[in-house]
Design brief:
The radius of gyration is 19 Å and the shape is globular. The chain folds into 2 domains: 5-176, Thiolase/Chalcone synthase (Peroxisomal Thiolase, Chain A, domain 1); 180-326, Thiolase/Chalcone synthase (Peroxisomal Thiolase, Chain A, domain 1), CATH 3.40.47.10. It is of the alpha/beta class. Strand 12 and strand 13 form a beta hairpin. The strands form 4 sheets. A 5-stranded mixed β-sheet has the order 1-7-6-4-5, sandwiched between helices. It contains 10 helices and 13 strands. Helix 3 crosses helix 4 (94-101) and helix 7 packs parallel to helix 8 (260-270). It has helices at residues 22-26, 33-40, 55-70, 94-101, 118-131, 207-211, 221-242, 260-270, 281-284, 291-299; strands at 5-14, 18-21, 44-47, 79-83, 108-112, 138-145, 163-173, 178-186, 194-196, 217-219, 252-255, 308-315, 319-326. It starts with a strand and ends in a 6-residue tail after the last strand. Helices cover 31% and strands 25% of the residues.
């Protein structure tokens, strides 16, 4: 019996129409286009506008387009995993809501929250289900409406985040393609530097927590930056060494789009030139769980069957990880 691996066989994304530029942010908070660009690499970000629209709406758009693109019926999907930190509501899982809205019935669906590393954690989880033989068509979604938890009076965080969703189809492969290895790690001590203070069971929502702005992102920028540079670079080099890869063997690095300087530091540690690094942070900002699928989607036509690709991410928690995969198809 042939060895089964889990491979991405299709990808789609959904980005809102509304564009929030650095020039617009200059009028909202005490900042400047030059300050934002120099420190983050971001020029603009997409924001989901509209009454009653949430993370699931972008995700459903991406999933429906993915099913059409891959010729997959909703009835064939036997697992859907959603990575998000901005669920539509505390329960049910946003994955349940996506499945319902996309017409995916009687299937297993659940959420994963690993902050900005969530998509990688979800993809590695999907691999286990596929390799075990339990599931044959798995949809992995990375989606966040970060604007719902951003304080647009806080110039340290409001410049960073945007909204988007991405979805990939994961299927069995017997050609040795797909996910080859993954390294996932976390350190809960880092939670003090990046979190949302209120809204959970420790500090439920109240008039006082809302008035104090405790439902927005709280971030200690320097501590997060230093940890992200170290851990994202370390885990990327670790997975290379573990699998006997050199910089010449790697076709693409797909890094989480948190900050241009973090991306550049990771690529430098891996010995990769800029030409091998997917970077679109300047157009979308940090869309949290959607950054990696957004990159794969935009570069899909340049990817070749058999390409060695490294995915790398770092997020609140702290969480971090890397996946080594061999791309499974040439885009039509």
């Amino acid at each position: 019996m042939a060895n089964i691996s889990a491979a991405i066989t299709g990808i789609e994304c959904s980005v809102p129409d509304y564009i929030l530029t650095n020039q617009q942010l200059e009028k909202m908070v005490d900042t400047s286009e030059e300050w934002i660009s120099t420190r983050t690499g971001i020029k603009e970000r997409r924001i989901l506008k509209g009454e009653g629209l949430g993370t699931s709406d972008m995700a459903v758009d991406a999933v429906k387009k993915l099913l059409i693109k891959t010729g997959t019926s909703a009835d064939e999907v036997d697992l859907l995993i959603c990575a998000t930190v901005t669920p539509d509501m505390l329960f049910p899982a946003t994955a349940n809501i996506i499945s319902d809205k996309a017409g995916i019935k009687k299937t297993l669906s659940f959420d994963i929250n690993a902050a900005c590393s969530g998509f990688i954690f979800a993809l590695a989880t999907a691999e286990k289900y596929v390799k075990s033989g339990m599931n044959k068509k798995v949809v992995v979604v990375g989606a966040d409406k970060m604007s719902s938890i951003v304080d647009y009076t806080d110039r340290k965080t409001c410049i960073i985040f945007g909204d988007a969703a991405g979805a990939v189809l994961v299927e069995p492969n017997i050609e040795g393609l797909g996910i080859q290895d993954s390294i996932l790690q976390s350190d809960g001590a880092g939670r003090v530097h990046l979190h949302q203070k209120a809204g959970g069971s420790i500090k439920p929502a109240s008039h006082e927590t809302v008035a104090a702005g405790e439902h927005y992102i709280y971030q200690e920028g320097q501590a997060v930056f230093k940890s992200a540079v170290k851990h994202m670079a370390d885990v990327s080099v670790e997975i290379m060494n573990k699998n006997g890869l050199t910089s010449n063997d790697i076709a693409w690095l797909v890094p989480h789009q948190a900050n241009l300087r973090i991306i550049e530091a990771t690529a430098q540690r891996m010995g990769l030139p800029k030409e091998k690094v997917m970077i679109n942070i300047y157009r979308y900002g940090n869309t949290t769980n959607a950054t990696i699928p957004l990159c794969l989607w935009e570069w899909e036509k340049q990817l070749k069957k058999g390409d060695n690709i490294i995915l790398a991410a770092f997020g609140g928690g702290f969480t971090w990880g890397s996946i080594y995969l061999k791309w499974a198809y040439d885009a039509k």
